[in-house]
């Protein structure tokens, strides 16, 4: 558990959970490959040439930014400075990045940029990048009579197809029919929720998924584990209130009508007004009614989800609930970082040596200039030492920059700086962790303290 702001779980009265990629962890390669395939079919119906497209799960990460003006995928620092990018699937060189972005700061409020802030974005990024290549080559559409299209229009077409796949039944029917293929369950998740209930927490399920998908997937994920603890129990016994088709982020933004379920087998709902009742299932609704129903508000409620915008950003900004972000990828990055720890120590030591050499070089150049000269034996020697040191630093720096992902590097870092994604996480997520079960390891009574942050002028220990 990693805290950006101290979170006292003892003061939290209710905990809300998202379902997809939160309570139910998916195998990203399988889930997104299926979404990619179904979206390709949908794009084909629009006349897009999708023949031969292939999904590469490791070629993209969440936290990238799509530049709709230029058709580029970018990785930026917390300040919005671009340090890495591709045009379509082709990596941009340093000079190409400098020409395109030397005077550009990535501002997520600008319509030019689209932030890929969930694992559901991986299939979208893969489709878009490959279709940018075909757009550039004049091979995007199957019909020669198709109207011209720009990078922004292509993105809207791809994004719309992905959204439609998520909303219609074919993909979800495929997942329901073979959940073992798509899910990577953690048996400790159910135990975590049960312990939270024992500690007096009221639990909520607030998911954008429809009842027809939520019911079979939650049965698959939790019924067996709950029945082991509660005779005849099901996943419904874990939650005080269930909201499906929540339409987040709208759920946190506006007062939306809700419907109460009257027939779970047929998925029938009737209009509902007023507070939510314990043990019931609702379709749609809003956060304000949740607060009224629980007689709670603000920091008495914690919401846990995987979507940086829909689950965390608006929740923190608009209703001021406490927030927790689920980042599955962080596990692999931590494993890589631990394996690289010895080399990281060597790299840091060599960088300190380089700083010392550069300082001495700067002084030697100034001394030579004062003596009316531009070169000296001391200057030549220091240049040589720096060059030899760079030969040792370079391979370690390359390895450090590819931890977590060979193409884009660590999710939370951009070079020596925090990534733009990391900045959003620290701004809107009070805590982040790789899986819900980690809450169980810390218990419902934990006091999650934020680490003291370092400033550039702090004296090293």
The description of the largest β-sheet is: 10 strands, mixed
CATH superfamily of the largest domain: HAD superfamily/HAD-like
Q: Classify the secondary structure makeup into a structural class.
A: alpha/beta
Q: Approximately what portion of the residues adopt beta-strand conformation?
A: 15-25%
| DSSP, total strands | 19
CATH architecture of the largest domain: 3-Layer(aba) Sandwich
Describe the structure.
The protein has 16 helices and 19 strands. With 461 residues, it is of the alpha/beta class. It folds into three domains: 2-25 and 185-328, HAD superfamily/HAD-like (Rossmann fold), CATH 3.40.50.1000; 28-179, no CATH class; 341-402. The strands form four sheets. A ten-stranded mixed β-sheet has the order 1-18-15-14-3-9-10-13-11-12, sandwiched between helices. It has a five-stranded antiparallel β-sheet with strand order 7-6-5-4-8. A two-stranded antiparallel ribbon has the order 2-19. Strand 11 and strand 12 (268-272) form a beta hairpin. Helix 1 (28-45) packs across helix 3, helix 1 (28-45) crosses helix 4 and helix 11 packs across helix 15 (420-428). The mean pLDDT is 94.
